[in-house]
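quick one: manganese (II) ion bound model?
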Amino acid sequence: MKNLLPLLIFPLVFALAFVSCQEGAGDASEDNNARSVSQVIHELADLPYAHDALEPHIDEKTMMIHHGRHHQAYVNNLNNAIAGTPLADMDLIDIFAEMSQHSMAVRNNGGGHYNHDLFWNIMSPDGGGEPEGDLAEAISSTFGSFEDFQAEFKRMGMTQFGSGWAWLIVDADGNLKVTQTPNQDNPLMDVVEERGTPILGVDVWEHGYYLHYQNRRGDYIDAFWNVVDWNAVSELYAAALSS
Ligand code: MN
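yep, here:
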């Protein structure tokens, strides 16, 4: 009987580990719609830097919760929403182009996944300063100066009522514009007024800044400029113009 004990214990340990994994995934859900992911279609990429790398401008705890919980929940809920449907085989950008034909679950979570991927990648611990080259010239000729652009972008972030995003986009004619969208909408979706390709965005959901800045959204946007990776934004600008 003594020799049988490991045979009984090992399956039990594995079963408990499995259950605990499933519960962990459920914790990340924002809307209590915590079904387990039935099919991995979209995946959460690692941050391109450490969670504390954007300190003191964006704090480590906010980054851990924002990426590991909120973004993960968008990914899980998106996968659940599209599993077994034709959308599972489509790029998000193609889904956004016909967004009005799809469910709010796909709109909110598809937008949530795409927007956060962009957000993580246009920030860097080596960011800040001003853009150079073609993007710098386009910003000056469009908005008057870099400072005028910053003021207009901040105004978009400040006047977005409730949750949403402020964007710098390239429209269909190749012109720069600053816009805002509610919730997890983005300028690629056919449901928004001002459409274009986003090359810079700031998340003005309270989950993006409340731990460190509380209600001071303006201070958060001011600090955001210190971590903007203008090289990444310039690459997105060039890609948007050539597409
Ligand atoms: Mn967010």
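The chain has a mean pLDDT of 89.
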